[in-house]
Amino acid sequence: MESLLTGSLPYGTYTIEELRGETNSGYELISLTFDVNKQGMIDLGEILNWRVGLKTHLSADMSKEETYILSDKISYSNLPENNEYKIVTSFVVVNDNGGPEPLIVNGEHYIKSTTFTSQNREGEIIIDNSIPKANLTGKTVVAYEDIYQGDELIASHRNPLDKDQTIEFEKEKTIHKTGYKDLKNGLMAMTLGFVSLIIIALYKKERDVW
Fold first, then answer.
1. DSSP-assigned beta bridge partners for residue 14
2. Whole domain around residue 152: which residue ranges?
3. What CA–CA distance (Å, rounded) separates 145 from 165?
4. Which of 55, 123, 171, 205 could bond 75 through an S-S bridge, CB–CB 3.0 to 4.6 Å?
5. Is 96 in the same domain as 145?
């Protein structure tokens, strides 16, 4: 009887599905079908394994007095279309040593989750974050982004040195409460001095007349 085995695989049609691991983190998982024929030939065709790309830009609307709007524009590429994804946006503050620390808002690390469905392999999404001005003043803030499909992390952008996702907020200018009082006292002193000069001049003039 003629053997129809090629190695340990009988001839027929098979499906290979790639599983997620540390070495393929950030890449699109591959699923393909191939045939083993009677001659022992396997044709897998061309396999393209794309890495999901992320590019971000952070901007701020500071027109309101109490709350700033931080808009995180996220551009993605090689993201399989017609799937639902979750973007997790978080913010860190650059400390005096240049390292990242969590941005604390209302006693917790600020994190926002947004769900979207990709219509194309390439696209962009803008996520607005309302953050109190008091939590941002005088700080250098950096946005981090993670994209999940279900519970699986498929792409991440976490670079505290990326200027496109960094904003430096100025320190609030301090107005001394004693400033008005000092100005008022100074004006009064100048006025009294001017009046005194007039009185002295008039007195001298009257003495000259006498």
1. 34
2. 53-168
3. 10
4. 55
5. yes
